[in-house]
Amino acid sequence: MAYPTELQGRVDAYLSGLRFSAEPGTAGLEEAMRYSLLAGGKRIRPVLALATAEALGREPSELLPLAAALELIHTYSLIHDDLPAMDDDALRRGQPTCHVAYGEDVAILAGDGLFAEALRLVLERQTGAPARVLRAAAELVAAAGVDGMVGGQFLDVTAAGDLDAPGLRRLHELKTGRLIGAAVECPILVTGETGPATIALRRFAAELGVLFQIVDDILDVTGEESTLGKPQGSDERHGKRTYVSVFGLDRARELAEESHRGAREALSGAGETTQTLARITDYILTRQT
Amino acid sequence: MAYPTELQGRVDAYLSGLRFSAEPGTAGLEEAMRYSLLAGGKRIRPVLALATAEALGREPSELLPLAAALELIHTYSLIHDDLPAMDDDALRRGQPTCHVAYGEDVAILAGDGLFAEALRLVLERQTGAPARVLRAAAELVAAAGVDGMVGGQFLDVTAAGDLDAPGLRRLHELKTGRLIGAAVECPILVTGETGPATIALRRFAAELGVLFQIVDDILDVTGEESTLGKPQGSDERHGKRTYVSVFGLDRARELAEESHRGAREALSGAGETTQTLARITDYILTRQT
User: Fold this and answer.
1) What is the band of B225 on the pLDDT scale with cuts at 50, 70, 90?
2) A242 vs B283, residue with greater confidence
3) Which residues of B touch A33 (CB under 8 A)?
4) Which of B78, B35, B102 is nearest to A157 (CA)?
């Protein structure tokens, strides 16, 4: 099934409309933030959030501020991960990375700014009962914090070469899985849903995070640079352990199939409005970038 | 009058008790975060928040999560400002800066982590009606974002040498003033106070931010390195325009006296429980570090 480009279009339109700087002096900062934010990409996290709203019987557009916040946080993490002191990557989505285009100081601040503005979106613009918005915002920052994305990136830069298989899985749960999970969890919290469908959706989110990372590792080895938009084989050059380096390419592909089946099975327990989530799941298994 | 060390002690005790990492793998990240967070300092922002609660007739301890969040955000900004790509400072509060002690990659992540964990404190632990906590959290991230701290730091690294006097004032309003202001504004929002005292307190906060920055610029020129804990004259070496470089030392001192008078006058309109705020104001004028 095809990726839900209709939801992606709504996300892209919303992101394009965002402005961050209220005065001329900081227009250059906003430019660097928008440069990275609007560089393309499938918008998997926000599309996942909108599709989760749909699965819960809500109008997806109600969740746009929260959905956009997920993409701002993802973009901030990419900008900081690409810095010379981290992965030192010069290319991202076929474009010079933020620090190459705007300088390292501006790139650090563009990342910092995107994180702050992501939270402003949720806290100022997300509709819903205040207690629910508060819980969703708390989940979002937890997913971005030490027990989430930042902690996972710390493991990646300090320990990735020495991890065993469970350690590797944990690294990716934190670095990637928590924010993918938040894309499902935060809409559940904002809507206040508590039924059995939410249990199935949470199980789905956990499997999807694993699937996403395995495919990412496979693409780093098999992908074409022109399609990936970044140098192929960068994990290996950085001495990182990946699903491919630990299990081999064939077994990694089997593991991806298993996670895909697990995610689809979980969805089947989450009701009849999960077709869009199923399309995202299929896309993640078969994606080439 | 003496600085309110009693409130400072409560802040220090609360900060020391904070833990950020739930697992062994990220203990090194927590260590770097705590290294910078617990390096000392007067805790002006959180003490200001607690004293504002007191001025509003509340128990200061109720505001500790929010107060601590202000210090975490301040610490995160110092860590990122000190990075080689920014101010490239090797010494802070008499200790090696975070990137010197832990490496640049870990320092970037320690800053990122402190920002996320600051917001978790407010969203998960700050008591109060959810709608009020939400508004206070929104004010906090706005003060930290593009129209606040991050925007001010952007002006500082890109334009500080070319600014005229109003531009310089705007830089510091964003970089320092907004977070100092938030230390007064957020407690007002959490408590839900709307009386005339809040108008006076907001005027006080604006003057205090200016006072703080003028004194900072004076100390950069006149301070002793052993007391400052960082190299003296660093603004001049970085080619930064300051209140001293624009107005001269004598006029800068007069401006500090004027702001101090303005802040004390504003307080006199905010009721009879503002003694602690007055002590903080006096301390900021006469501080040596």
Assistant:
1) low
2) B283
3) 146
4) B102
* Residue B146 contacts residue A29 (beta carbons within 8 Å): yes
Residue B20 in tokens:
């950020």
pLDDT in tens, A166-195: 888 888 899 999 999 999 999 999 999 998
**ipTM score here?**
0.94
Task: Verify whether the Cβ–Cβ distance B29 to A130 is below 8 Å.
Answer: no
SS3 B96: strand
Q: Which residue of chain B has the CA closest to A125?
A: B138
Nearest to A117 among B86, B146, B158 (CB): B146
Chain A interface, mutation test: which of B112, B122, B186, most A Cβ atoms within 10 Å? B112
Residues of B in Cβ contact (< 8 Å) with A148: 116
Q: Do B86 and A105 touch (CB under 8 A)?
A: yes
pLDDT value of residue A284: 95
Q: What is the pLDDT of residue A166?
A: 83
Q: Which long-range contacts (CB under 8 A, 24 or more apart) does B81-90 make?
A: B81/B153, B82/B107, B83/A108, B83/B107, B83/B108, B85/A103, B85/A104, B85/A105, B85/A108, B86/A105, B86/A108, B86/B153, B86/B157, B87/B234, B87/B238, B89/B230, B89/B231, B89/B234
B157 with A105: Cβ contact below 8 A: yes
Which residues pair with residue B91 across a beta bridge? B96
CB contact under 8 A, A134 and B138: no
* CATH class of this structure's domain B5-286: mainly alpha
- Here the tokens at position B4 are 């309110």
- Residue A101 CB-density burial (10 A; 0-12 exposed, 13-18 middle, 19+ buried): middle
Please list the alpha-helical segments (H only) found in chain B: 5-16, 27-37, 44-55, 64-82, 98-102, 104-120, 130-144, 149-159, 165-172, 178-191, 196-222, 225-228, 234-237, 243-247, 249-268, 275-286
CA distance B154 to chain A (A): 7
User: d(Cα B42, Cα B12) in Å, to the nearest integer?
Assistant: 9
CB-CB contact of A119 with A65 (8 Å): no
Give the residue on A whose Cα is nearest the Cα of B106.
Answer: A154
Task: Answer yes or no: is pLDDT of B239 > 90.
Answer: no
pLDDT given for residue B174 in this prediction: 93
Q: Per-residue pLDDT tens for B146-185?
A: 999 999 999 999 986 677 878 888 888 999 999 999 999 9
Find, in chain A, the residue whose alpha carbon is nearest to that of B141.
Answer: A116
DSSP B92: E
Cα separation, B39 vs B27, in Å, equals 18
**Whose structure tokens read 């309003």?**
B173
pLDDT band at A220 (very low <50, low <70, confident <90, very high): confident
pLDDT digits (tens, 9 = 90+) for A44-66: 999 999 999 999 999 999 999 99
Q: Which residues of B touch A28 (CB under 8 A)?
A: 154, 158
Residues of B in contact with A21 (CB under 8 A): 146-147, 151
Q: What is the mean pLDDT of chain B?
A: 92
pLDDT at B49: 98
